[in-house]
Protein 1
Amino acid sequence: MNNDDFRQWSRRAADWGADYRNTLRDRPVRPLVEPGEIFRGIEVSPPEDAEPMDRIFADFEEKILPGMTHWQHPRFFAYFPANAAPVSVVAEYLVSAMAAQCMLWQTSPAATELETRTVDWMRQALGLPEGFSGVIQDSASSATLAAVLTMRERALDWQGNKQGLAGQARLRIYSSDQVHTSIDRAIWVSGIGEDNLVRIPVGGRFRAMDTAALEAAIIADREAGMLPAGIIACVGGTSTGGTDDIAAVAEVARRHGLYLHVDAAWAGSAMICPEYRHFWTGVEGADSIVFNPHKWLGAQFDCSIQFLRDPESHVRTLAIKPDYLKTHGHDGIINYSEWSVPLGRRFRALKLWFLLRAHGLESLRTMIRN
């Protein structure tokens, strides 16, 4: 594809996107297909010779589109609907066109510095205190995994990455049964093991962790020779909206020296409205907080912000610095690949920057309130 063809098909794709959005309400929300139907319609073997774009685009419309669930449909009410504002889509066009790999400052300085700025914009928008910094992860699952790995390393005096878990004290993580299943996966992947995720009883209108039971479990585990490492609290659990008393949980974490991660993946967006911040009173006591602008603010997937009260432990857990990843001649810069499990990173901050500027916080607050 030469540059003239690229221009033509880019315009065609943009026009198609606008027409698609304009006709969404005339389509069924879910595709009327049977399992395997799309698969059988795709050629069994890859083409040996180039095919014309007209044919490829036509096959997209005829073979792929009929099998799509339309997440931006006005009658889509599952999961997290209407989560890709048009301005966010436009920003993603630009990100795809530049196709930058944003793992280090030197691989795209603007991507790094815009991420730092937009994350701080969101810190201010949510009412978090100065001192919190953060990173845009792909999803809350990755943020939670990073938090659990940090809990593990802090508890093991930074020996888990080096020595593994064999022969180490048995680690314990605490949460309610209202947390997202990404917590279970983080426990599996980190090597801590599901049997060591201690489910604390819940109660009350918001299905909050019983903090007396939480403290009793921590004390009992210590007396049994186990090693409490961290607590995962939730604000707006996915299933029922379960919300812990963050101030009370944070106080337990402080007394016992445990790392506290708060999962506010979808409900966190509501905190741009000051009147909803009582749902996470005390959140400034957390070590790690995650919320997803791609669930309720209009940034399309993937865009998950993890705030960190002190990033040093987080980076110490995740950073690896071979020579080919060093930015020579510069000290004190941020390389966000050291803040994430994956090395490769997309330019996620651009769509958030476009979104916040095109809508403004007051418009986004109105959306949440209504």
Note: The chain has two domains: 3-78, 96-369.
Protein 2
Amino acid sequence: MGASLFMLEKRHKSFEYGRYGNPTTVVAEEKISALEGAESTLIMASGMCASTVMLMALVPAGGHIVTTTDCYRKTRIFIETILPKMGISATVIDPADVDGLEAVLNKNKVSLFFTESPTNPFLRCVDIEKVSKLCHSKGALVCIDGTFATPLNQKALALGADLVLHSATKFIGGHNDVLAGCISGSEKLVTEIRTLHHILGGTLNPNAAYLIIRGMKTLHLRVRQQNSTAFRMAEVLEAHPRVRCVYYPGLPSHPEHELAKQQMTGFGGVVSFEVDGDLMTTIKFVDALKIPYIAPSFGGCESIVDQPAIMSYWDLSQAERRKYGIEDNLVRFSFGVEDLEDLKADIMQALETI
């Protein structure tokens, strides 16, 4: 009687308890679903919350997942240190290694392929359509973290992925003032994740949801500007004698440039590059910049610069960092909505100091 009454009253839609949602978060979820072309979206307290809850909800105990070499460090730590406690193992492949993915799918009962595209911080791209068809033929799900792409530059679900995830803290929020994460896909899969989310918590408060909604009002304007600025600055940086190499999908030198042109309508607002120098030279360059904030985030109106060796990977030795391709001279630059010429002049003067 109690259960039937519960269903009859549809109490799961009545917001009877804050952890289960509220009208403001529902509006944010519906807007993100519209952007992604998804049946359903779940919004949570952070991007990492979305990633970890998704993995725990969809991968069974003793299951196997596949992920890629280049990814957000905390995601890697969760996969390498927390999932094994649940008997979940992982195979790590290069983002472009489709043959490697096929070999893993043939050898193991894979539950999920989870990757960023573009990846952090080298902006590698995964052939979403190809890996989705391959994984589905073997009964595996595909989840794409599209944070660097945004829903405007890349439609992962339309390309065949089952789920698309974002740290909404970044481009979707867009103002460097709110933490949030979201995951979109079929109602069936999102409901499975939502069920676990209601148990674990990680709820987004209504005011944060409001800030996400506010951010989405200008998403198309911001991303258009950031795409344009990042692309032009990537070309400038690649031609500069004090820059060793540039990582940006919009450049012909990028290993997945042709793929990026096929599956993305813009290449994003983040450019990674290596300056011609060592750790201290790079610190000098970063400190000489006047416009960007020095911070470990990206995607907001304000430009942000990050030197991974002393920020995201500060606790590792140089040898340990190099295992992940993180050199002392690597810089990740998130371009905001400032004037292109102002940003260019600032970066040029900072490069002159080294």
Note: The longest helix spans residues 219-238.
Protein 3
Amino acid sequence: MDLDNITEIKEIDKSGMATLLHGFSEQCQQGIILGQGAEVPFKKGAIKNIIITGLGGSGIGGDLLRISSVNQLSIPLYINRGYHLPGFAGEESLVFVVSYSGNTEETISALQGAIKAGCQIVIISSNGLLEKVAQEKSLPLLRIPKGYPPRTALGYLFFPIRKSIEKLGYIPEQKGAEEETISLLQDLARQYSLEQPLSSNPAKQLAQRLFNKIPVVYGTLDNTDVVAYRWKCQFNENAKAYAAYHVFPELNHNEIVGWERADAIAKQFVVTIFRDKGDPARIKQRIDITARMLSDKVDQVIQLDSQGDSLLARIFSLIYLGDYVSYYLAILREIDPTPVQSINYLKSELSK
């Protein structure tokens, strides 16, 4: 498959994911505007903790809030990815209920628990049962545009949450970081686009290095851990490929031993490690040592540096690269990146 043959790429990408990827910076801008206009009718002193509940592409916004505000948020933040809220959820909890479709089973269950516990609630959705409940219960609703696969709607699923929490005064405004992030995404869109040839396109080049291999992605706790998870999920959903991820320093206490006797199997793996200027010195040492240890065991060890000055821009620089790499990997495998047949099958079986 020739990644410079745009005609062939478009024949494979029947659902047009490339268009959504290319327009990501505009989506982020719209997400910021949506958040700025959101009504959050709560008093700061009445909220003692924040819970964000959502799954899959709808859940990553909460994870991104955690790492992008890890040293800023003045009250506890809990990310919920299941049917039930934690036991401490109550009247002093602000719960963001996030489901792009509005029909995610686990998220609907969590919403019911939030209502029962008397939580303060904000719903983020494009449609579905969540929108109906918001109207029936007079709950604040941030309605986001329809027509996206949830994993391609990150700008709508992250920035409105962040801007809402800014309004309440729990984290400072980051106008400069947001502007830098948008500008960087616009620049990267040109670098990673279909029209940019393989010879000068980092996303296409990396996809080729991963073709017919098993990707393993390593990030750093409270910095790029969510990015590593995002890459793993994008390989799963876009490229329909198995992938794994882990996080420094924890992986140095378990997974590193697993490579000792992997032998020939290890040559099927490509390990990608994220590096960021915010990584602590000891983590940088751990990355250096781990990369050396794996270099003669796996097929390749690829180290990628984040781009940008602000933490927000650096996080999104890596996320955006991963989105494009997984897209081009799907094209190399001659698979339409948009459909997720296994998820749809599972949902249909559960509905019986």
Note: The chain has a mean pLDDT of 95.
